[in-house]
Amino acid sequence: MWLPAFVRNFRGSQLVIQLEQSVSLERLRTMYNGNLSRILVKIEFVDPRKARPKQRALFFALIGDIWNWSGQPVEELKEYFYIQYAIRTAGGMISLADDTKNTVSDANKLLEIVIDFMFDYRVPFKDGYELLPKGETYYMYLCCKHRKCAICGRHADIHHLETIGMGGNRTHVDHTKRHVMALCRSHHREIEQIGARNFGYKYHVPVTGIKLDVETLRKIHVAGNYEEKE
């Protein structure tokens, strides 16, 4: 049962909401076998922002990169990814036209599907690379997962933003507790030479990094001490 509501106040981890319509207690009693002492709800924060032109530009730039790689017509590629979006969102519709009703979050889901595809099939980023959302956590995660430099797209090492220390044995470190980003050797050297802050300003990327789970770290062959995580 889905009901629209408005948030009236935040109180720490508690939300005060106002429903647009009254709740049918009889329906709730049926759902919970008459026991209304513990009712579970699902909260979804609705994105009020309309999908942006730069998201449309990025989508078609990436589609162009896939067309250069595969030779598949652009309209067919567009239809394919729209269908993938519908599958991933249980029938959701997507449009990036000027009059779209889709949100920034909707468009980001579509872009994640396209970027996933390109990383998985090793499609070369060309026209779309400069437009990639390098500030997005999901993009940073994919760069680490596929060992692609977040700056230039070349093969990358996993750069630790917190210094492990000279002589430190990385296989004895729990890497799930450390912030990382994927950088090729050239950009790895540069961030160490000019410092994280200057590096972030130069390439317009966040240098706070992300944390990876044990499964991802093992897949990308980052050895460490994960006994507590087993």
UniProtKB/TrEMBL annotation:
Q: Which domain of life is it from?
A: Bacteria
Short name of one Pfam family: HNHc_6
Instruction: Supply the name of the protein.
Output: Phage protein
- State the organism named in the record: Liquorilactobacillus mali KCTC 3596 = DSM 20444
